[in-house]
Design goal:
Largest sheet of chain B: 7 strands, mixed
Number of domains of chain A: 1
Distance between the termini of chain A: 36 Å
Radius of gyration of chain B: 13 Å
Radius of gyration of chain A: 13 Å
Order of helices and strands of chain B: EEEEEEEEEEE
Largest interface: A-B, 22 and 20 residues
Number of helices of chain B: 0
Shape of chain A: globular
Structural class of chain B: mainly beta
Structural class of chain A: mainly beta
Distance between the termini of chain B: 40 Å
CATH class of chain A: Mainly Beta
Oligomer: heterodimer
CATH superfamily of chain A: Immunoglobulins
CATH topology of chain A: Immunoglobulin-like
CATH architecture of chain A: Sandwich
Number of helices of chain A: 0
Largest sheet of chain A: 6 strands, mixed
Shape of chain B: globular
Chain lengths: 107, 118
């Protein structure tokens, strides 16, 4: 089965750039989606198809995907960005796969 | 605006059954794929089941295959998950989610908690 690997936690100071990685075998050949989940709330799609942003998501959120790593980048981090972030792909053999999630802490 | 509202969660004994519902509004329900996704307490997200827009194609995660049944009623704008032979490891918040394309979830409900315990 296909596995996505995320760091358990990432810490960043306000105003700096946070990068959350998502590793998978040849993930660059797949479409990656990213979700933000704040405590007690449902996940929210923040990046789809590697790098597209849904309406209402700030331009500070961007994504990239190449080789064995996809990356969610959050520029000019704000306190309100503190949340869990999940990457996700669809794989023909494993169906929908989520990464284990990364807790973003704003220092 | 798009709304997905789950209901039907609760406390059930191991081996018991529960039926979850998801009421959709604000979009043409019959045009969209739908899925159920769950999250055990303090854990990550786990995809559970998928149903095509017409209901003709269905997939399940191995962890629930043979025990859970997904269905939909496009006339009632509703999605369902019949859960049988429930186990402690099925304890989770269950979300319904809209899929504009296969494997992309653009709207999620608020979730309904299922607790399996004696």
């Amino acid at each position: 089965s296909y596995v996505l690997t995320q760091p358990p936690s990432v810490s960043v100071a306000p105003g700096k750039t946070a990068r959350i990685t998502c590793g998978g075998n040849n993930i660059g050949s797949k479409s990656v989606h990213w979700y933000q989940q704040k405590p007690g709330q449902a996940p929210v799609l923040v990046i789809y198809y590697d790098s597209d942003r849904p309406s209402g998501i700030p331009e500070r959120f961007s994504g990239s995907n190449s080789g064995n790593t996809a990356t969610l980048t959050i520029s000019r981090v704000e306190a309100g960005d503190e949340a869990d972030y999940y990457c996700q792909v669809w794989d023909s053999s494993s169906d929908v796969v989520f990464g284990g999630g990364t807790k973003l802490t704003v220092l | 605006q798009v709304q997905l509202v789950e209901s039907g969660g609760g406390l059930v004994k191991p081996g018991g059954s529960l039926r979850l519902s998801c009421a959709a509004s604000g979009f043409t329900f019959s045009d969209y794929y739908m899925s159920w996704i769950r999250q055990a307490p303090g854990k990550g997200l786990e995809w559970v089941s998928y149903i095509s827009s017409s209901g003709s194609t269905i997939y399940y995660a191995d962890s629930v295959k043979g025990r859970f049944t997904i269905s939909r009623d496009n006339a009632k704008n509703s999605l369902y998950l019949q859960m049988n032979s429930l186990r402690a490891e099925d304890t989770a918040v269950y979300y319904c989610a809209r899929e504009p394309t296969r494997g992309e979830f653009d709207y999620w409900g608020q979730g309904t908690l299922v607790t399996v315990s004696s």
